[in-house]
Design brief:
By secondary structure, the chain is an alpha/beta fold. It is built from eleven helices and 13 strands. The chain has two domains: 186 residues, ATPase, nucleotide binding domain (Nucleotidyltransferase, domain 5, 2-Layer Sandwich), CATH 3.30.420; 168 residues, Nucleotidyltransferase, domain 5 (2-Layer Sandwich). It is 35% helix and 21% strand. Helix 2 packs parallel to helix 3, helix 6 runs antiparallel to helix 9 and helix 9 packs across helix 10.
């Protein structure tokens, strides 16, 4: 059978200034073929600062009353830029429009509120799928999370069904596929394809925010600052006493759910060391919730490039944590690939979320087709 390419797009809450673009051939169940992948920088140099302003506006808004005007401005900016990125990608890799079945456009998550008790779940992603579909003249699937939220789910994480396909592709079971993005999340794949997934706690976002506050760049490159600092275990113990870490799965987080004010008083190196160790410790706590200790942790997302984070995870969990590249896959591409995969599942009305991943009552499809 002749399969077409699905193109996936992702920009994470870590706000690194890049659009992740990946091509994948899939039937919605298995990975048929991996295509090219590219990190394409935003051409409009104001977008990163605009996104930071948008996050700040979202924190004040908290789903209360009229949406801030900046949402519409940012949505148009990123939708046009990401549409142009797909065009560049197609041109660079000589992919014809007729050879593409769809584009999976995640958009930018500016606010996420998981359902808790009497509090209903809400989520807000910016991204105009209709604008992109008209621009590209290709079917675009976006708004992947809303249907899950409307049906009592967490709205996140959505990548687990793709992670299951990845585990089949690399022929590994009883593993965790870990994404270290703005927030850290895990997918546990058991021997019998049992799928459990949830957000474990902070990822790169607080480290990046802290480094920027200290006017020391955009991130702790390779964990160099952390490697020179001392860990404040009082902060970590206090932080991990938050009720979130005792909640059973499924559960999900917004990037700004926790307060890091005490970190601001620390030196650059000590703050980075402490926030890095916090990643290892929150993942260790998460693993204790699983039915069986996994044999290995396979890491994707930007955090896998940070040696201090990888070492902290291995040490805290006492499980070998290795980058996904070891298995011939691309750690920067996983999330974009996931939304290429989910877009095809959306077109086929296959489930995107499950009781053990987002907490919906029954497996549920989603995504808006434009």
């Amino acid at each position: 059978m002749n399969y077409k390419w699905s193109i996936g797009l992702m920009t994470g809450t870590v706000n690194d200034g890049f659009i992740d673009v990946a091509a994948l051939k899939t039937d919605g169940h298995q990975i048929i073929e991996y295509g090219p992948f590219e990190l394409i920088p935003y051409q409009n140099k104001n977008i990163q600062s605009k996104i930071i302003e948008t996050f700040e506006a979202a924190k004040k808004w908290r789903f209360d009353n009229i949406e801030p005007a900046i949402f519409a401005e940012t949505e148009k900016l990123i939708s046009v830029e990401q549409s142009e990125a797909v065009n560049k990608f197609m041109h660079k890799f000589n992919i014809k429009r007729d050879d593409i079945s769809c584009v999976g456009f995640h958009g930018l998550t500016v606010l996420h509120q998981a359902p808790l008790g009497d509090i209903e779940g809400k989520t807000k992603q910016l991204g105009d799928g209709n604008l992109m579909a008209n621009y590209l003249k290709i079917p675009v699937v976006n708004d992947f999370r809303s249907n899950d939220i409307l049906n009592g789910g967490q709205g996140a994480p959505l990548a687990p069904i793709y992670h299951l396909a990845v585990s089949h592709y690399i022929n590994k079971k009883n593993i965790i596929i870990l994404n270290i993005g703005g927030v850290s999340n895990i997918t546990y794949i058991g021997e019998d394809d049992k799928l459990i997934a949830f957000d474990t706690g902070p990822g790169n976002a607080p480290i990046n925010d802290f480094v920027r506050k200290k006017n020391s760049g955009q991130m702790d490159t390779n964990g160099d600052f952390a490697s020179k600092g001392s860990v404040n275990f009082d902060f970590i113990n206090s932080f991990l006493s938050h009720p979130y870490f005792e909640l059973n799965f499924p559960k999900s987080l917004d990037r700004d759910q926790f307060s890091y004010n005490q970190i601001d008083e620390m030196s650059l190196e000590d703050g980075c060391a402490t926030l890095t160790k916090l990643i290892g410790e929150n993942i260790s706590k998460a693993i204790k919730l699983l039915p069986k200790k996994p044999e290995r942790i396979i890491a994707s997302g930007g955090g896998r490039k940070n040696l201090s984070i990888m070492n902290a995870i291995s040490k805290s969990t006492n499980i070998k944590c290795e980058g996904i590249e070891k298995y011939g896959l691309r750690g920067d591409a996983i999330e974009a690939e996931a939304f290429a995969f989910l877009a095809v599942r959306s077109l086929k009305k296959l489930p995107l979320s499950f009781p053990s991943t987002t907490g919906v009552t029954n497996p549920l499809t989603g995504g808006k087709i434009n």
